[in-house]
Specification:
By secondary structure, the protein is an alpha+beta fold. It folds into 2 domains: about 5-145, PurM-like, N-terminal domain (60s Ribosomal Protein L30, Chain: A, 2-Layer Sandwich); about 160-320, PurM-like C-terminal domain (Phosphoribosyl-aminoimidazole Synthetase, Chain A, domain 2, Alpha-Beta Complex), CATH 3.90.650.10. Helices cover about 35% and strands about 25% of the residues. A 7-stranded mixed beta sheet has the order 8-10-7-11-9-12-13, with helices on both faces. Strands 3-6-4-5 form a 4-stranded mixed beta sheet. A two-stranded antiparallel ribbon has the order 1-2. It binds magnesium ion (MG). Magnesium ion (MG) binds near residues 78, 214, 215 and 217. Magnesium ion (MG) binds near residues 81, 214 and 217.
Length: about 325
């Protein structure tokens, strides 16, 4: 069935029936606006992401359900990066003529499944026919205890730089998908269905463990670069400390150039944060509790030292903080 046959209102009615109500929702989908409230003593976090077919994803590389899940996770990741909890999401869809209602339903199943997993709910949106590619626009709102929000400007000289999980998996999967090579299911999952680190971000903010934080969407050097700029500091990264998954290590063994993907690949959706070294005991406990590796990958240095990397051979090199940039060149087709 085509969307035109079901009609926009029919589709919205389906979504309304499937969208669970949630915390802070006085009135959800169905009126001119959603009516929402925040818990006392909290501040509102708001973020938006646009996903465009042919720019951010290829429909033939993924399935609609995982695309729905990823549309949620990339937004929720920004809420996590501020130390917040996601609460409400809004979905705007531009649907091409060949995207039938069954595909749309799969997309919505994945979208709502992820929303529920993150403890949030869908409270509004809009759909329209797209004369071109599939367009997905998601706005996410979250809440953070007032004054606990983790900004990019809080890093200080002498603090450690930490990262959750592993780096480079998503970029490696994208590179393999682009070249039409079979992709390890773990790596493919990291690209198509990333996990926003909500529990980690929330705990770091609540316990006052981190001083600055960002999620890794454009690559560790680019995103660290945002923290360095906002904080007015430099950094020394240790290549030997960058956390890698076993599938990535195997690929790196065959092609040492893949280290570039670890530094500037992007779409890891891990959290990158700075913390005083005396937080390390608490960070270890948190890592065990969440069963999520946290690794110190470098140190914050004075700003005049810029961004440097000590490579495997022990040489200290200045590195470019530019990761992937949508307007300044393309590291891989299809992005
Ligand atoms: Mg971000």
């Amino acid at each position: 069935m085509k969307l035109a046959e079901l009609g926009e209102f029919g589709f919205i009615e389906r979504i309304r029936a499937a969208a669970a109500s949630g915390e802070g929702v006085c009135h959800g989908i169905g009126d001119d606006c959603a009516v929402l409230e925040l818990p006392a003593g909290h501040r509102l976090l708001t973020t938006k992401d646009l996903l465009i077919e042919g720019v951010h994803f290829q429909r033939n590389w993924t399935d609609s359900r995982r695309l729905g899940r990823k549309s949620v996770s990339v937004n929720v990741s920004d809420i996590a990066a501020m130390g917040g909890r996601p609460r409400h999401l809004y979905l705007g869809l531009g649907v091409p003529a060949d995207f039938d209602v069954e595909e749309l339903q799969l997309f919505m199943d994945g979208f709502l499944e992820a929303v529920t997993e993150y403890g949030a709910c869908l409270v509004g949106g809009d759909t329209c026919r797209s004369p071109g590619p599939l367009l997905i626009s998601v706005t996410a709102e979250g809440a953070v205890p007032a004054g606990r929000e983790l900004l990019r400007g809080g890093a200080r000289v002498g603090q450690g730089i930490y990262v959750s999980g592993t780096l480079g998996d998503s970029a490696l999967a994208l590179q393999l998908l682009t070249s039409g090579v079979a992709v390890d299911p773990y790596l493919e999952g990291r690209h198509h269905d990333p996990t926003a680190r909500v529990a980690l971000g929330g705990a770091l903010a609540r316990d006052g463990l981190a001083t600055a934080m960002i999620d890794i969407s454009d690559g560790v050097t680019a995103d660290l670069g945002h923290i360095l700029k906002a904080s007015g500091v430099g950094a020394l990264l240790e290549e030997a400390q960058l956390p890698l998954s076993e599938p990535f290590k195997m690929a790196l063994h065959n092609d040492p150039h893949l280290m570039q993907l670890v530094l500037s690949g992007g779409e890891d959706y891990e959290l990158l944060f700075t913390a005083p070294l005396d937080s390390e005991g608490a960070l270890r406990s948190l890592s065990e509790k969440l069963r999520l590796p946290l690794k110190r990958i470098g140190m914050i240095t004075p700003s005049d030292e810029g961004l440097r990397l000590r490579n495997a051979a022990g040489e200290v090199l200045h590195i470019d903080s530019r990761g992937f940039n949508h307007f300044q060149g393309v590291t891989a087709p299809g992005r």
